[in-house]
Amino acid sequence: MSRKFIVYIALAFASLSARGAVADLLAAFDSKPTVEHANAYFAALDKEGFTDSRVTFRADTPADTLKLQVWYWAAEYLNDAQRYADARRYGERALPLARAGGDKTLYGDCLNILAVVCVRLGDFAPAVGYAKACNDLDRATGDADKISSSLNTLAGIYMASRQPEEARKYILEAIAFSRRADNPARQAVLFGLASEVYRSLGLGDSALYFSEQALALEQRLGRNDKVAVRRAQMADALISLGRTDEAARQLLAAIPQLRADGNTHSLAIACNQMGDVCLGSGKDAEAAKYYAEALDIFLAQHDLYNESHSRKGLYNALRKSDPQAAMAHNDRYNQLRDSLYDRETGELLSQYAARYGNERLQDENESLRRSRWLWIGGLLGLLALLAFATWMRSRRRVHALRKALAIAQAATARPAATETEGGQGGAPHAATVSPQREVPSEAPAAVPTDADILQSVADAVADGMQSGQTDVASIAARLDITAATLRRRVWAAAHQTPKNYITALQMQHAAHLLTASPTLSMREVARACGFEEPSNFVRVFKRVYGVTPSRYIAAQVCPGEGRQE
Length: 565
Known about the structure:
Elements: H1 3-14, H2 16-31, H3 35-47, H4 63-80, H5 84-101, H6 104-120, H7 124-141, H8 144-160, H9 164-181, H10 184-200, H11 204-221, H12 224-240, H13 244-261, H14 264-280, H15 284-301, H16 304-318, H17 323-339, H18 343-423, H19 450-467, H20 472-478, H21 483-494, H22 498-516, H23 522-528, H24 534-545, H25 549-557
Helix pairs in contact: 2-3, 3-4, 4-5, 4-6, 5-6, 6-7, 6-8, 7-8, 7-18, 8-9, 8-10, 9-10, 10-11, 10-12, 11-12, 12-13, 12-14, 13-14, 14-15, 14-16, 15-16, 16-17, 18-19, 19-20, 19-21, 20-21
């Protein structure tokens, strides 16, 4: 056993007592799922820093709600602890409760964590099933960021199952959606995976391009831990192009940072790469050290695929200096190579790939049929619309004037009220989402612009956040329109669903509160943004900004700080 592996074991034992306490509390909840046991479990997670804020449940919380929250977070926690089989067990227990509860966001989170842990367990067929169901759910919401996230998971699964051609379909679509969502953190992750995909396809120039894009984004975001990961990905692309000197420089910069961050999996992959570079330049003894360090980590993580890379490298590095040890590594490498993937798994994944292509064809056919009916309907309704338009024009002008006046009054009145409340030391008023606008004393009778429509929705949301009524129906009622009309107008103005736009306003206000009033508790911030439960608020905030609220505050104070994925 190497010294480095002993260090890794010592670090693991340092946190053993804390993890043991969490495990005991989880077992206590399983035997008796009460509010007291649930609160104790989340208190332990909060103490360990796993959750962003303390989650507590009221005495009248339904049992199924307790089980769903505890079991879902248990799956997340156990995945983080690399106890993948246990994480899968709890994720599968939470999944039907999330489906029955109707919370599509949490249901999607359950599907996603199950896809991830199944990949870690090498069970690729169900991993694809979970990831595909999560992607279908995300597509139904129209949320570009969520869609790009679940497509990224699918691409990662196909990469893990050595099907880079299928992975390329998903990763390119994911990048397209991430650009619509304008999420740089997500784009950096996607570019990094795209680099690995193109490297596997033997397209080194494309792999290098994507790795350079990923590195530039991480450096701009100040996420130093992820900069090290992207350097390792860039080194992989450079190695494929024969530019080993440049690859060595990237790896020598990445490996110390990965060690410091405790990112053992990425560290081991980088050590394998450095071993390849040293081996190619005739530095066999140095290569053997890097391969051995990687092997210790992969053995501890039960990562058979990457273990095979380390074994093969050690065979080549030790052939001259220690032939007996080299042959032992070669024997183990051959065992791994023959047993990693079976025929059934490959066939099942191919079926999913075919299904993906068939669904795309069906979508295109359905779109064509709809467009034809719309064209026929347009011709039949044209004469009626021409007659109707004259009558509607005068009514729209009157309605537009009243609406413009109402918006102007609301926009000029709220900032003053907000300033008064802030001066009394209370939480900032929700209306700070909507900045004051200057309007002429006599508003012209004009049809509302897209900006006017979005401003009216923003004002309604600002009011609704104070009472926790931010659902689509409540906002529509505040605007005195139907939910269907609200959906149509917001989509026409911003190409977003009302739910997504409302959530964006809530998160915009949340970001303002976190920076302007850092003394507020997470529960107070959540309530001020219209969220009943802080845990739900934290989950949504992290989806939008890519970091938890506490990390967001830290980034404003210390811009160089980043987060780990």
